[in-house]
Specification:
The complex is a heterodimer of chains A (about 110) and B (about 110).
Chain A lengths: L4 E3 L2 E4 L5 E6 L6 E8 L3 E9 L2 E5 L6 E5 L5 E5 L8 E8 L7 E2 L3 E5 L1
Chain B lengths: L2 E3 L4 E5 L4 E3 L2 E3 L5 E7 L6 E5 L10 E2 L10 E3 L8 E8 L8 E3 L3 E6 L1
Parallel strand pairs in B: 2-11
Antiparallel strand pairs in B: 1-4, 3-8, 5-6, 5-9, 7-8, 9-10, 9-11
The chains are: A mainly beta (about 110), B mainly beta (about 110).
């Protein structure tokens, strides 16, 4: 069974730009969560989607948004990028209940 | 609010030595606790969860609600245990089911 796939793996943007990251969950998984990982703050929860509905949201500004499609694939968008948005963005999928997460390799975003 | 504290950033032991990775949590309800592990150049993956009460790769963790702790233990460390370990808490199903991670600890097992 294929694992969680995230694209792109690496990207460089400049301040003020926006970025869209994509996540394809494991087949059959309906829940997709997004996390931001930085050296200073560690892993921080962004949001979780289940059956195209945002079920939970972390404490991030409105510049961070996401969505889930009918095939469970998910995208997250960050608008008006700031230097502090440089991080590894991890996507994780699960069958249903949060906790048994299967992580992707992440998308490493660098904001210059 | 949910909070997970891993008080140490690094633990270095010799092969065969016992290991204890500390994790304390703060949560008003009944939490679910997990340990995730990330080996070098691999994805973050679930190691164990407290409700399964099983030993994985020789590791065990007991939920102590009185001390609000979920320490990870292994009696004899192996070199292949070297990795980054994260303790995580889930507040249950529904709207509060997001996973809160500690900042992680690097375990280094020397030969």
């Amino acid at each position: 069974k294929a694992g969680v796939t995230q694209t792109p793996r690496y990207l460089i943007k400049t301040r003020g730009q926006q970025v869209t990251l994509s996540c394809s969950p494991i087949s059959g998984h309906r829940s997709v969560s997004w996390y931001q990982q930085t050296p200073g703050q560690g892993l921080q929860f962004l949001f979780e989607y289940f059956s195209e509905t945002q079920r939970n949201k972390g404490n991030f500004p409105g510049r961070f948004s996401g969505r889930q499609f009918s095939n469970s694939r998910s995208e997250m968008n960050v608008s008006t990028l700031e230097l502090g948005d440089s991080a590894l963005y991890l996507c994780a999928s699960s069958l249903d209940r949060v906790g048994e997460l299967f992580f992707g390799e992440g998308s490493r975003l660098t904001v210059l | 609010a949910q909070r997970v504290t891993q008080p140490e950033k690094l633990l270095s032991v010799f092969k065969g030595a016992p290991v204890e990775l500390k994790c304390n949590y703060s949560y008003s309800g009944s939490p679910e606790l997990f340990w995730y592990v990330q080996y070098s150049r691999q994805r973050l993956q679930l190691l164990l969860r407290h409700i399964s009460r099983e030993s994985i790769k020789g590791f065990t963790a007991d939920l102590n609600k009185g001390e609000t702790s979920f320490h990870l233990k292994k009696p004899f460390a192996q070199e292949e245990d070297s990795a980054m370990y994260y303790c995580a808490l889930s507040g249950g199903s529904g709207a509060n089911s997001k996973l809160t991670f500690g900042k992680g600890i690097t375990l280094s097992v020397r030969p």
